[in-house]
Amino acid sequence: MSGKYAFTLQSEDRQRTLPHKLIIGCQDTETTRHVLLKLFGFLLFHRERLLMEPRLHDDNIPFRPDLVELDYQLRPRLWVECGECSVQKLDKLAVKVPEAEIWVIKRSKTEVEELMAAMRKGRLRENRYQLAALDHEMFDEIQERLGTRNEILWVGAGFTPPHMQFDFNGLWYDAEFHCFTF
């Protein structure tokens, strides 16, 4: 399934000045789940220099991030993986982007717990990764309502406590999510 999804964005969040429009391309191997996880990552972590799936011009970093914020020397400050991400990749990221804050966003708390168990088994460095688990019922409902053109009114979000408020295609959501440190 290749294509693109357009999101008309309106923000009432004073901390996040969102662009008017966001287009997320969907490659043949990607699912709508991945598209939505990138959307939520973009909304939750939006910063002035946040980029979606850029090609990094650094031979030492062999990966392409879902979302990244680069500093003025073009080094990653924030690295966000959305959905599927191997433990081996996370282990290498800790070395390749030592100054970056590394986040992984998953659809549900169960998926985050499974990843954390695999990370423990793989003996990854502790206190290096942040993981966000969305509300799976909310996520599944939005995935069903996802069209090629969508409208979002973003009211706000916070990490203490983790919550977000928004309208997606005419339906209001006031949802909690969970954050974990590994």
Report on the structure:
- There is one protein chain.
- The protein is built from 4 helices and 11 strands; from the N terminus they run ββαβββαβαβαββββ.
- The protein has helices at 32-45, 87-96, 109-121, 136-145; strands at residues 3-11, 21-26, 50-52, 67-70, 76-82, 101-106, 129-133, 149-159, 162-168, 171-176, 178-181.
- The longest helix has 14 residues, at 32-45.
Low-pLDDT segments = none
Oligomerization: single chain
Q: What fraction, in percent, of the residue positions are helical? A: 25-40%
What overall geometry do the principal axes of the alpha carbons give?
globular
Largest sheet: 6 strands, mixed
Give a count of the beta strands, DSSP E runs of length 2 or more: 11
- Strand fraction: 35-45%
Structural class: alpha/beta
Strand order of the largest sheet: 3-4-5-6-7-11
Helix count equals 4
Q: What Rg, in angstroms, do the CA atoms define?
A: 16 Å
Overall pLDDT confidence: 95
**What is the end-to-end distance?**
34 Å
Name the helix and strand elements from N-terminus to C-terminus, one letter apiece: EEHEEEHEHEHEEEE
Task: Write a brief caption for the model.
This protein is of the alpha/beta class. It contains four helices and eleven strands, in the order E-E-H-E-E-E-H-E-H-E-H-E-E-E-E.
Please specify the SSE layout and strand pairing.
Blueprint: E1 3-11, E2 21-26, H1 32-45, E3 50-52, E4 67-70, E5 76-82, H2 87-96, E6 101-106, H3 109-121, E7 129-133, H4 136-145, E8 149-159, E9 162-168, E10 171-176, E11 178-181
Parallel strand pairs: 1-8, 5-6, 6-7
Antiparallel strand pairs: 1-2, 3-4, 4-5, 7-11, 8-9, 9-10
